[in-house]
Amino acid sequence: MPEVVSKTLYDEIEALIPIFQSREPELDKLGSFPFENVNALVDLGYTKLILPEAYGGVNLSAYELVKYQTLIAKGDGATAISIGWHMGTLLGLRNNTAWPQQTYDFLLQKVAQGALINLVMSERGSGSPTRGGTMQTTATKVEGGYVLNGHKAFATLSPMLDYFISGVNLDGEDSFFLIPRHTDGVSILPVWDSVALRGSASHDIVLNDVFVPDHFLVQQADIANSVIRSPGGLLHIPACYLGIAEAARDYALHFATTYTPKSLGKPIIETVPTQQKIGEIELLLKQSRYILHGVAKEFDDGTVQLADLLAAKTTVVNHAITITDLAMRICGAQSLGAKSPLHRYYLHVRAGLHNPPTDDEILTLLAKATY
After folding, report:
1. What is the pLDDT of residues 320-365, one digit of tens each?
2. Do residue 84 and residue 138 come from a single domain?
3. Which residues form a coiled coil (predicted)?
4. Domain stops at, among 112, 142, 167
5. Of 53, 124, 155, 195, which sees the most CB atoms within 10 A?
6. Could you tell me the CA-to-CA distances from 10 to 15, 45, 66, 85, 106 in Å, in that order?
7. How far apart are CA 257 and CA 269, in angstroms?
């Protein structure tokens, strides 16, 4: 992707930050979703840049992707995590050779026309697929295709999904199916009530006798280790929380430079305790960017190690939590005010602890990598 194009897109997304931030408080309501924000990114052509050039994209690098996703999250975390799953799914599919060619071509052509996609894997009560959870959703072979029945959870981007890739139990084997969102029998169950990233609308999807043609069975594999769940496709997750942390830093910095208590007679940024907290924030931000950007570049070069991808995720998410906490400490009790976004930012960054893979999984894998 030529640097001039990248710079232009960066400027265009940066111009959206204050607009996204102005809409962010409304996304704290139940049933909310950033329709206008997502449409703005689709209109920019952002959602198709991740496609290979043969399909109308520019083969967007993982390095550029995490930079853009961080920028979007600085404007609004719900928008970033939602569109990030679309982008990450496509990144995971980029070098996929397991799918039927006609289905692969079909989906990527739809994305080039503006379609949005996501992975919808989790099921309530069965555990995470990354931990070996077996799919309870079933597929039954019928003439010309399959009939799917089941109940999926945490379908981020659900109000605007056009297609989703889902894990299904087919004759005792976990398999992947491509499912058009607007197929008969597919319904959204609006149960998402999380206080963090509420605007992501990560509702449940119910499949009731949903028919899909034969070629929409796209892959039969170990779901936990499938190329569809490529760890590189999860790089958008830490990028999201880094962007939210940057927004928290900016808010705290503005507060510190403009708040002058009468008892002090000068802005609090001139005090050593405040400077120490700001210094801690800057150090954590630099560490986060360095590991995230470095791992993304290694992913692009084909030299990345799984342990480094996992380390980037847990490092950035936990740094984001600390950064946001420090920002709240700088602003004091005012950080809990209804007009301050900091209390929402703090809830949002904690959601990263529960995005896959979780810290305990990562630490166990890092430990096992040493012997």
Report:
1. 999 999 999 999 999 999 999 999 999 999 999 999 889 999 999 9
2. no
3. none
4. 112
5. 155
6. 9, 12, 12, 19, 29
7. 5
Contact indicator for 35, 158 with CB cutoff of 8 Å: no
Are 211 and 147 in contact, with CB atoms under 8 Å apart?
yes
Rounded CA separation 80/237 (Å): 9
Give me the CATH number covering residue 169. 2.40.110.10
Domain hosting residue 339, numbered range:
235-368
The whole-angstrom separation of Cα 226 and Cα 211 is 24
Instruction: Report the CATH number at residue 313.
Output: 1.20.140.10
Burial 135-169 (b: 16+ CB within 10 A, else e): bbbebeeeeebbbbbbbbbbbbbbbbbbbbbbbbe
pTM score of the predicted model: 0.95
As for how many domains the chain has, the answer is 3
Of the candidates 54, 120, 119, the one whose C-alpha atom is nearest the C-alpha of residue 90 is 119
Question: Is residue 98 domain-shared with residue 11, that is, in the same domain?
Answer: yes
Calculate mean pLDDT across residues 44-71.
96
pLDDT bracket for residue 96 (50, 70, 90): confident
